[in-house]
Amino acid sequence: MISEAEYETRATPELKRLLEALDALESDEIEAELESDILTLEFSDDTRYVINSHRAARQIWMAAERSAWHFDWDAERQAWVAQKNGDELWQALGAVIGKKLGHPVELARSS
C-alpha cells in the first residue's frame, strides 16, 4: 500500500486528468463532473457511473453497470490497477463507456 502522502499526490490529479479526457470526448451522450474527489459520469439516459477517491483504502473506486473496481497504485506499471482482475483504470473506464455508447472509446491521457 502506498503512503498517504503519495496517495494524495496521485489520486486527485488522476481524477482531474480523467475529467479532462472525458470533456475532450465532446459527446452529447455523456456529461462528467468532478466534485469533492467524486467523478460522476451521467449519460443521456440518466445512467450514472461513479469514480471516486477512497482515502481510507488508498484506492480509486469505480462503479459502472452493476460492477465495481478497486484500483491500487501499481508503481511498476505507473498506473492504477484493479488487483482483482488486472484492469487498468483508463482502459477499464474507456471499455465501459464504449460498451454503454455502442462504439469504441479511447480516453486521451494528458500529462
Written account of the structure:
With 111 residues, the protein is of the alpha+beta class. The chain has one domain (4-101): Metal Transport, Frataxin, Chain A (2-Layer Sandwich), CATH 3.30.920. It has 2 helices and 6 strands. A 6-stranded antiparallel sheet has the order 1-2-3-4-5-6, with helices on one face. The two termini are 24 Å apart. 23% of the residues are buried.
Labels describing this entry:
single chain, 111 residues, alpha+beta, Metal Transport, Frataxin, Chain A, 6-stranded antiparallel β-sheet, 2 helices, 31% helix
Fold topology:
Blueprint: H1 4-24, E1 30-35, E2 38-43, E3 48-54, E4 59-64, E5 67-74, E6 79-82, H2 89-101
Antiparallel strand pairs: 1-2, 2-3, 3-4, 4-5, 5-6
CA-atom Rg in angstroms? 13 Å
Number of helices: 2
Indicate the percent of residues in helices: 25-40%
Mean pLDDT across every amino acid position: 94
Q: How do the strands line up in the largest sheet?
A: 1-2-3-4-5-6
Give the strand content: 25-35%
The class by helix and strand makeup works out as: alpha+beta
Compact description:
Helices cover 31% and strands 33% of the residues.
